């Protein structure tokens, strides 16, 4: 009697273990999927048309694919309902509605980015205009400084030329030159010895 109870417990333990493994396997094999582009898909309580309809799914709805049996797929909806539907109504890629929604979202993001770039471009053009104006002002100031420098150089040259043209300066320079010439020239020319003299 004890051995019969023991074997029954063993079978019960193995059965529960197998059931747990199958549940875990079913949960880990859940993959995201989408309802294909049919307008409405019926959700059945079992894998076949003979099972009662427990709800409908619209095209593009996002579901989790749990299991597959006899051409039917068990899915879990976003509101945690579970049911079966024909395999041909399920797709691993988003439907046209989901793709349209994603493209519309990306278009709105790109539009916002384009608006930001246009604003940045306008600000950049203002900066370029301001820098161009500052450059033109700096070039005008540089040109004015060049003209002032040229005028001052001409005035300095004129003053130096007029200094040497004054009569007193010119006479003083000639006198100084003659004095130096008179003092240095006798020292440079050797004197002739008198041959009549004895040593």
TrEMBL record:
Signal peptide: 1-26
Domain SH3b, chain residue ranges per copy: 27-94
Pfam families, sorted: SH3_3 (PF08239)
Membrane topology label: Single-pass membrane protein
GO cellular component: membrane
SMART domains, alphabetized: SH3b
Localization per record: Membrane
Coiled coil: 100-162
Name of this protein: Putative signal transduction protein
The species this protein was found in: Alishewanella aestuarii B11
């Amino acid at each position: 009697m004890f051995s019969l109870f023991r074997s029954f417990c063993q079978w019960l333990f193995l059965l529960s273990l197998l059931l747990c493994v199958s549940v875990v396997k079913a949960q880990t094999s859940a993959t995201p999927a989408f309802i294909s582009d049919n307008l409405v898909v019926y959700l059945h309580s079992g894998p076949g048309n003979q099972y009662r309809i427990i709800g409908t799914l619209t095209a593009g709805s996002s579901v989790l694919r749990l299991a597959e049996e006899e051409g039917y797929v068990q899915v879990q909806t976003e509101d945690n309902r579970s049911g079966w539907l024909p395999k041909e109504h399920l797709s691993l890629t988003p439907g046209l509605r989901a793709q349209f929604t994603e493209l519309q979202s990306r278009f709105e993001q790109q539009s916002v980015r384009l608006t930001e770039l246009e604003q940045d471009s306008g600000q950049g053009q203002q900066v370029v205009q301001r820098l161009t104006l500052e450059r033109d002002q700096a070039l005008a100031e540089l040109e004015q400084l060049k003209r002032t420098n040229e005028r001052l150089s001409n005035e300095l040259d004129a003053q130096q030329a007029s200094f040497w043209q004054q009569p007193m300066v010119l006479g003083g320079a000639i006198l100084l030159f003659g004095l130096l010439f008179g003092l240095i020239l006798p020292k440079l020319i050797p004197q002739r010895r008198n041959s009549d003299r004895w040593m």
